[in-house]
Amino acid sequence: MEDIVRVGFISSMDKEKGMAQVYYPDRGSTTELLHLFAMRGEYCPFDVGNQVVVLHLSNDTSSGIILGRFWGDENIPPKVDYQNTLKQDIWTVLADKTYVIHCPEIRLEGTAGSMTLSELVNLRKRVEELERKVK
SS3 of 130, please? Predict the structure, then answer.
């Protein structure tokens, strides 16, 4: 029973199946592929080396659920109201009543069509250039 909840490190990730293997350094062993817990239906695969909490469903490491990462000395929580890190360079944050989406490209889609943030920024630059010419 003492091994039901364990802390380990992601050793491999199968993104297509939503499963990963976890390495336990204190045992020198690696689990079978385990399912990722889907809190609120979000899917965010881990990177190899991420420290995670695992809930085992038996007395061995062959079945269980990877609950996720946790805050601590190694992974200090951000000083913001809300943050969701999807990948190292893709995240959202709420701080000082401003919601920021950070990623290499953002696409807005709806029934009227779609447009990227780059297209919107370029459109603004063109409008500003035309306004300068008119003045």
Answer: helix
Chain segment 62-87, per-residue pLDDT in tens: 788 999 887 777 777 667 778 788 87
Token digits for 2?
């003492």
* Adjacent-strand bridge partners of 84: 92
Query: Which helix (H) or strand (E) segment is 126 a member of?
Result: helix 117-134
pLDDT in tens, 24-62: 999 899 999 999 988 767 777 888 998 999 998 876 667
**8 A C-beta contact, residue 37 and residue 64:** no
Return the percent helix, strand and coil in the chain, to nearest 5.
15, 40, 40
Question: Which own/partner pairs from 88-92 qualify as long-range (CB within 8 Å, at least 24 positions apart)?
Answer: 88/47
Rounded to the nearest 10°, the torsion over CA 86, 26, 13, 62 is -120
3-state secondary structure of 70: coil
Three-class SS of residue 109? strand
Measured CA to CA, the distance from residue 118 to residue 92 in angstroms comes to: 18
